[in-house]
Task: inverse folding
């Protein structure tokens, strides 16, 4: 009988527009040496898990939003106390005091070994030690690991395992055409897509500032700000962006029906961010673009520097951003080299099967943990309070 791992996370249910949910889904589907249990939603058919060995426990009353409500979290905690029967718990959350305190207490009380993935890096790493309770902590980038170590007096064991990307089938020409047509984008127009949050105002401004230089060389270029309405501020930010840009050349939309088809037909995907708070270290949409061979152009910032093959421009340099966009559009040989390098990086580091093997080695090390090691673990947790 296979040992069992429970993924403790926000509700795992469609739509999968969230990096944390995608991570849990792909890890659970990929497990071969462990039986995977995920925390789902009551009444949800969980069609994504159909035909797999994944068990969906209906621990949440509703799907919720990007940040689960307090009520949802309390019900999930009660389910862990009363119903969870697994060999390993794998917590996948952005570190926060409430979840870490509950996770520390529950794992100590139930005497279950814990893997804790830092789903997204905190804005400020000071005090991070109080938020880490796993027997093994997984950072999704070397950048995050270095900052954890720099802010911990007694750091826990830390593994670096990047996020996975599932197999991405290239969209058909018909899908690509339909995605452009839905936004009124001419079939042959150079297309640059920013698939990020409008709350990342520095990134939005960087793209805006680069647009004039790009259009001076590529007058037919179209720019799409494909955002998620992640906070209440998003609609107003979208309205303001529409008002200060040319609607003939700029699309601002929070409702892209087929984002993969849109980016598959893009000249480049732009991600000039200087703050990843609230995001996974390496955003899933960028990994999907890389898998499709679409050039990604980003600021040389934080974990983004670890994305193999993408185009990195100097942090904050909007002129360099524009120059890179024009060159990608005009230099077919360079564009091909970027695509090849990105796809190699995906195969070597981010393919789901590669990532799952690394996690299963971590699980295996914990399921074989002897009793005295467990006692030492609980003594360490008691010292942390």
Result:
């Amino acid at each position: 009988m296979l040992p069992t791992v429970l993924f403790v996370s926000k509700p795992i249910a469609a739509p999968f527009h969230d990096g944390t949910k995608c991570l849990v889904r792909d890890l659970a589907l990929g497990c071969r040496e462990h039986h995977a249990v995920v925390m789902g939603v009551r009444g949800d058919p969980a069609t994504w898990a159909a035909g797999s060995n994944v068990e969906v426990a209906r621990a949440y009353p509703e799907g919720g939003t990007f940040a689960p409500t307090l009520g949802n979290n309390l019900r999930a905690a009660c389910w862990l106390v009363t119903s969870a029967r697994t060999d390993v718990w794998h917590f996948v959350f952005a570190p926060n005091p409430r979840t870490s305190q509950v996770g520390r207490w529950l794992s100590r009380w139930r005497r279950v070994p814990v893997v804790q993935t830092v789903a997204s890096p905190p804005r400020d790493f000071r005090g991070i030690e109080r938020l880490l309770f796993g027997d093994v902590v997984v950072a999704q980038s070397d950048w995050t690991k270095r900052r954890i170590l720099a802010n911990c007096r007694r750091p826990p064991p830390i593994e670096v395992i990047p996020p996975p990307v599932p197999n991405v089938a290239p969209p058909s020409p018909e899908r690509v055409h339909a995605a452009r047509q839905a936004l009124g984008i001419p079939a042959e127009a150079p297309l640059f897509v920013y698939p990020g949050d409008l709350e990342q105002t520095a990134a939005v401004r960087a793209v805006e500032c680069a647009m004039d230089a790009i259009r001076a060389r590529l007058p037919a270029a179209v720019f799409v700000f494909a955002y998620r309405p992640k906070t209440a501020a998003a609609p107003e930010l979208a309205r303001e962006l529409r008002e200060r840009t040319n609607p003939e050349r700029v699309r601002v939309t929070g409702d892209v029906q087929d984002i993969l088809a849109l980016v598959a037909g893009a000249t480049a995907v732009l991600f000039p961010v200087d703050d990843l708070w609230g995001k996974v270290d390496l955003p899933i949409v960028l990994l999907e673009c890389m898998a499709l061979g679409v050039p990604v152009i980003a600021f040389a910032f934080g974990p983004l520097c670890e994305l193999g093959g993408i185009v990195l421009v100097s942090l904050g340099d909007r002129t360099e951003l524009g120059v890179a966009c024009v060159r990608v559009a005009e230099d077919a040989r360079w564009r091909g080299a970027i695509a090849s390098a990105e796809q190699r990086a995906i195969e070597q580091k981010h393919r789901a099967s590669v990532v799952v093997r690394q996690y299963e080695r971590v699980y295996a090390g914990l399921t074989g943990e002897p009793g005295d090691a467990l006692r030492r673990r609980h003594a360490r947790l008691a010292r942390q309070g």
